[in-house]
Amino acid sequence: MFRAWLMTPFWTALMILASGCAQPEPKPVENLCSLGPDDTEVLAEAGTRTATQREFDAELLSIPERARARYENDRGRKDITDRVLLNEALYAEAESKGLLQDPVVRTAARQAAEKAYVNALLKKIEQEAATDEAVQAHYDENASKYKRPMARVRHILVKDKALATSLHEQILGGSDFGELATKHSEDRGSKKRGGELPWATRDRWVKPFADAAFALDVNQISEPVESKFGFHILQLLEKRDMQPMDEVRPGIERVLTRNAVREY
């Protein structure tokens, strides 16, 4: 698998990057590959080849950010160090076959280095654009966009009005709402959770149910409410007018970073 992955033109260029850039006495601005001694920790060895922490970090940059979490465990880290060691072995093979002197490959290596620096620049621009302060400012300035009244309730659904009235009186008398929901509710989807329903907007519920839910104060119990499904007893658990920051933050970050890169 690694052999196929490494032998693409882009990765072939990267394998010869050091030599491709190391021309005799290059000007500093042209020497894209110059590095000081690598004194970071050695993570793996294979014969005379080593994989250092710096090489590990560099290899990790080649992986899409959204996929990097899978390399945080021991198996994933070994996968990365194996790649580094394989790169070194294939680089030596490329050198032995004279590929380091091929002008087209050397140009590709330089272009690959330039792209790495460009990608680092874009990443820096994105990070500076999507700070906590910038995200919060965008959220506040676009409050109307994120206005979305929602409620979270629990309910008991029964078919018989007399039973609904009796259960309502028991709840007001101190009986546990969740226990009564588990025992009596005919809503199979919520009864196992003590009648609790997920967050919802008004349009997700039938009108009588929604009107009752949004008219309640937090923790308040409704009178029995009739809908086409039967009779409901509701308790409002939470209510909010705005989408919370943790739900909309990824979208805000995408907007900020896209705009920052476009305007740069």
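Next protein, fold it too.
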Amino acid sequence: MTLGILKKNMKGESASSPAASRGQLMGHRVLATLNEGSSSATHLVVDPVDGALRALKHAVRDGADEDGLLHRLVDEHEIMRRFDHAGVRRVHRLQRVRSRFRLREVGLFQQYVDGPTLDRWAVTDGNAMLRVMEQLGRAVSHVHEQGFVHGSIRPRHVVVDHQDFPVLIGFGDATEDGVIAEAGSGNPGYSSPEQFLGGILTARSDVFGFAATMAAMIFRHRLAMENARELCAADWIDLHAQWIGELERCTVSVGLVRLMDQCLQPDPTRRPIGMAEVVHRLEEIRRLGDFEQVAERDRAA
């Protein structure tokens, strides 16, 4: 893929920044900036050996307080290298730069996926949406089978390639199954209540995030979670009723409403135990053909 094509496609993983299309980083030529965060940036780079395109997640330590950031990127590599699934972004290698025996810079070289993120994907009908979510569900299930929780499933952490195949990315919050979440660490609109309340993260936490992502595709906006970090258990129960009421107004698919009702339960013990069950039920819904067409939508963000 050339830089000219990149500039024509300003969506998702293919978004480019003209200012980033010059210079080198960790021995690789930079073509574009794919994403910029407060603590790290992801760039599209060219491998100097084989010319392959890579997504380089890069972070530099500015002070002693940022050592944790670099080590989290190292941990992200350790988690990602355990996955082997077409629907999970592959990691190629980790490069460390030290100065005076201290870690100064870290680069995580990953698979580059050419396509829009899920919030920008042009869905054509309900069946196309279900197929993508089934494939995404299998990828999430693979993550769980390795003993990990993704922890941040949302539309911008799914890239859909030119064959409408979804790839799960964004493993910065991934952790081992059974870890206690830091209270208030969730992402409003997509994260499970236990992430905001400091509960235990399990596969069921990702089941919630998966369903919230699908709801955002149907509603054309994220789930309403105003002041999520301040909500109590009763508040979450009220919100759940609102979400399901909105879903019932959006679709006549009884099977889909029932599945989403269970996946979005505030109490994790009332959700499906794993993604395999969720995928199976999505397949049944698609087979029945009662999920009506979905018009091309605005960003789900």
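About the second fold: Strands lie at 24-25, 28-36, 41-46, 53-60, 91-99, 102-111, 148-149, 158-160, 166-168, 175-176.
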